[in-house]
Write a structure and sequence with these properties.
8 strands; two-stranded antiparallel ribbon; binds zinc ion; globular; Rossmann fold; single chain; alpha/beta; 24% strand
């Protein structure tokens, strides 16, 4: 096949050369609310062409590569004195795959156990192209049955942080502790 980025022939949908040059993750930290941080690995502009692949059939292969370059490495270096659970936000599927479920799956490690379909949005509305005001008026209205867990929230992209904070709030209302959130990219860096 051809590399999605440089269009050279490649065994993977993003060739090794592009993975090693364009997709070197760097660690970004952003405070979403007092003492609560989101960590991300890329700026949105850096990987926009790959992130938008989630709308296409080959998106699962792209996200598997991105996740192994970033989330997997993070998980391998993550130390904590008890088991932490990773929960993907918005796991409803587009083309037979959920990009947040893929990211979350790559966190599986000594201290992190991914749990799937634990946070259900009862309002599946598309936010792309809409402003903060629209998002505020159209909350996801998450539901969860999780209780008493330590949690890492996972999403592909953080923009305003409103969705992540909404998910955090509902989890906290069931006595869970959300340690931080982890996204592939940050739209504000
Ligand atoms: Zn390439």
């Amino acid at each position: 096949m051809k590399c999605l980025s440089c269009e050279q022939l490649s065994f993977q949908i993003i060739c090794k050369e592009c993975q090693n040059t364009l997709l070197i993750p760097s660690f970004h930290k952003r405070e979403l609310e007092h003492d609560f941080f989101n960590y991300s690995f890329y700026s949105f502009s850096e990987i926009e062409e790959f992130i938008t692949s989630k709308y296409y059939f080959h998106g699962d292969r792209v996200f598997n590569i991105l996740a192994s370059l970033s989330f997997k490495k993070f998980a391998q270096g993550f130390e904590f004195d008890e088991l932490v659970y990773s929960i993907g936000i918005d796991e409803h599927t587009r083309h037979e795959f959920s990009q947040t479920a893929i990211l979350s799956r790559y966190l599986k490690s000594k201290n992190i156990k991914p749990l799937f379909n634990q946070l259900k949005a009862t309002n599946i509305i598309k936010y792309a192209g809409h402003d903060l005001e629209f998002r505020k008026k159209n909350r996801r209205k998450f539901k969860t049955n999780l209780t008493n867990k330590k949690i890492i929230l996972v999403d592909d992209l953080v923009t305003t942080g409103a969705t992540i904070l909404e998910a955090k709030k509902i989890l906290e209302s069931k006595n869970n502790e959300v340690l931080f959130s982890l996204t592939l990219a940050d739209a504000k860096i």
